């Protein structure tokens, strides 16, 4: 499980770096990009990813998590590479209206559906 955690955390940190380098400043994204961007800041998006990293990092041998969550954690490097390649690269090139929804729904899904599902099951 340690290698799975390490790979997932590295991928999430790569996502944070990609977001940080692709989005200028730390104003509300809607103020910078316009009506199609969410009313959140880059730092708030990265804070949510940091929480996911922390959640994964707290998993140990005693943590009881479902196999389905282990599968999600295993798949994070591939999923994140696809988000970086197919979505984040388009934020700056004028296609942010199509790039933000998949990025945000992926992070929201991971945050609310997967990672939080095991808390309290130690």
Quick gist of this model?
With 122 residues, the chain is mainly α. Helix content is 66%, strand content 0%.
Report on this model:
There is one protein chain. The radius of gyration is 15 Å and the shape is elongated. The chain is 66% helix and 0% strand. The protein has helices at 2-22, 29-33, 42-57, 67-86, 96-114. With 122 residues, it is mainly α. It starts with a helix and ends in an 8-residue tail after the last helix. The longest helix is centred in the N-terminal third of the chain and has 21 residues, at 2-22.
The percentage of residues in β strands lies in under 5%
How many distinct beta strands? 0
How many helix segments? 5
Rounded to an integer, what's the Rg over CA atoms? 15 Å
Distance between the termini: 16 Å
The H/E string reads HHHHH
Shape: elongated
Q: Spans with pLDDT under 50 lasting ≥5 residues? A: none
Structural class: mainly alpha
Mean of residue pLDDT? 87
> How many strands, which pairing sense, and closed or not: the largest β-sheet?
none
Helix percent reads 55-70%
Structural topology:
Elements: H1 2-22, H2 29-33, H3 42-57, H4 67-86, H5 96-114
Helix pairs in contact: 1-3, 1-4, 3-5, 4-5
List keywords for this structure.
122 residues; mainly alpha; 5 helices; 0% strand
